Amino acid sequence: MKKILVTGGLGFIGSHTVVELQNEGFEVVIIDDLSNSSIDVLDGIEAITNQKPIFERLDLKNKLDVEQFFQNHNDISGVIHFAASKAVGESVEKPLWYYENNLNTLIYILKEVTRLNASNFIFSSSCTVYGQAEELPITENSPVKLAESPYGNTKQIGEEIIKDTCKVVPHMNAIALRYFNPIGAHSSAKIGELPIGVPQNLVPFITQTAAGLRDCLSVFGDDYPTPDGTCVRDYIHVVDLAKAHVVALQRLIDGKNDSNYETFNLGTGVGSSVLEVIQSFEKVSGLPLNYKIAPRREGDVNSAYAHTEKANTILGWKTQSTLDEAMLSAWNWEKNIRNL
After folding, report:
1. What's the angle, vertex CA 173, arms to CA 131 and CA 169, rounded to 5?
2. What's the average pLDDT block by block, 10 residues per block, for the chain (340 residues)?
3. Which residue, 200, 189, 196, 182, is CA-closest to 331?
4. Which phi and psi (to 5°) does residue 137 adopt?
5. What is the SS3 assignment for 81?
6. 261 included as an active-site residue
7. Which secondary-structure segment (H or E) carries 123?
8. Looking at 108, 130, 151, 305, which residue is catalytic?
């Protein structure tokens, strides 16, 4: 049973990926500093898989702690690196924090990964590396443009760091997964998106508003060059996304990668506007949502949705869930944690 390290493994995407890894028979070790997650997620993972992963609370900004961890776990066969700060708006307000937290930690981990016998590395990247793409849907060959936010810039720089490392470390194999907008929750409603404080993402703000935690949802801008004036994104069910990480990791373990650094877009290939997401929620929940139009938010692009052929063909992966199914799972999760 191969041992896989998942950094940020108690976070939203990380926890769902841990479930899928354990379902496929991997032994999982989680590192998380609990800065934007809860230790209770471990119980949710165990309830779904009947197996509790190894957990170490560790701040990846502490280089010596990272080195010590890898000395204790020198039999790791692969790393999936999620741990990072990820809010576009917050990154505009706190750029230095984002550069320190997202880049220093990546470097410290890569230094240790390159010393492993099995240097297989999956990087949690983002469609933000494309900025406002000139052509839609966005392919992996779309130019990486000037980032719209410090968060997006950390993903661009992170990819460059990994690519440069792969050039000089022949046994290093890496895949950067550029995903679009993860939403939803596990069908069991035992794990889901659990933001600390005010949500930075659309869907948890929707569900918290419907649950009565928030008075009103702000829709940032209705004058974008889109069909209804609101931003368009590619919303992908988090379980579909999690499964893609397992497929990508297995590709590296099996030595099926075409080069030692590859990139794949992960999305549905369909763009949905903010208002369409709200309408989907109202449809599956049967509830009207209180929302208002607010000024545009700095750092947001107009439209972004994926061209998915490369991932569909080469990885043999594609999304299974619809927007309505993802919104219903998110609402079931919200109701479960609020005892509604």
Report:
1. 105
2. 96 98 98 94 98 97 98 96 89 95 98 93 93 90 88 95 97 96 97 88 96 96 96 97 98 97 98 98 98 89 93 97 98 95
3. 189
4. -70, 165
5. strand
6. no
7. strand 119-126
8. 151
